[in-house]
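seq as requested:
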Amino acid sequence: MGELTLYSMQSSGNSYKVRLLLAHLGRPYRLSGGEYGSAGLEAARAAGKMPLNRLPVLELPDGRLLAESNAILCWLAEGTDWMPADPFARAETLAWMFWEQNQHEGTIAVRAALLRYPHRAAQATPERLAALLEAGNAVLAQMDARLTGRDWLVGQAPSIADLCLYAYTHTADTRGGFDLERFPAIRAWLGRVAALPGHVELFA
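struct tokens:
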């Protein structure tokens, strides 16, 4: 099995979820980092390594490039325990991953980005931050309801749905200003994900 190359923005939850699955799978890879405005990011773009003009991107040993974090998770998880074999459980896993991108990321991750990245500061108006806080709390309430009385988002074992949602949820308080004390099922689930063998931290 040849070497994979991951073009990754280390501070990004989308890049982190891919690094997290690679760690759990024990897959070796070469890391090429690139934060906003960095030489690494511009080099990846100039070399044609960003087909959709954003990170992460996984380069396969044969040179093919796979963009979009959740697509990368699906490709890496194929044939492993991280992707359920049962068709319905598989579809549920994908449903949570679609939901992460069109509901969760647009509130939880965006609020954190507005507060963290200097080039987004002008967009961090009090009105927008308040709206994102309200919408994000509604999203977190959905997650908390799903996780109440169950260990994992889908089935009886962790899946890529859990890693996908963990990436931005675990810093929703420290980066986005959300009060996770309101969501006990989420907090318990975060602990379970972090306790899985092979877990790595965001900046590991």
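The mean pLDDT is 93.
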